[in-house]
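Researcher: Here's a chain I'd like modeled. Treat it as a single chain, no partners, no ligands.
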Amino acid sequence: MAAKSQYEELARQLSAIGAVKRGLGRILPPECPPGSAAVLTLLDRHGEMRLSRLAELMAIDMSVTSRHVTHVAERGWIERSPDPGDKRSRILRLTDDGHAVLRELSRRTTETLAHTLGDWSDDEVGQLNAMLARLRDNFGDCRSWPPAPHDCTAALTAPATSTGALTTSAIPATPA
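Model: Modeled as a single isolated chain. Structure tokens:
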């Protein structure tokens, strides 16, 4: 197990990743926000699926997933058809227009990353890809985690650890 200071630095770096995500979000066309891009990407990667499976893959609530799906469906990028096994459910699949949008998003993202990481070697990019995939796998479906306490004032008055840092017990241990 890594030293606590390594996890503290990782938390700082992950927080700073928000700037990277915002930068990549800026290259998306205005009609295709990040949530919509995620829907298209996951349908392309995993094929047709129900809304519940998409919500699971996105690790977000069904109501949020439904809003993203409505957005892309209204633009004709996906189609929703009745599930033959359960007429109450819908099967989501990419349309030809959705594939075209996804190709454009991929082109923009690839060009931006190639430009921004142009001084990185193939090996370094491969290592980053592998470590990010491992991190995501270790987190699994974080929707099942208990919600964090709403009152953070308790953390402000909690005793500090020997390093002066506050403890964080809201995040559950990774399942074995």
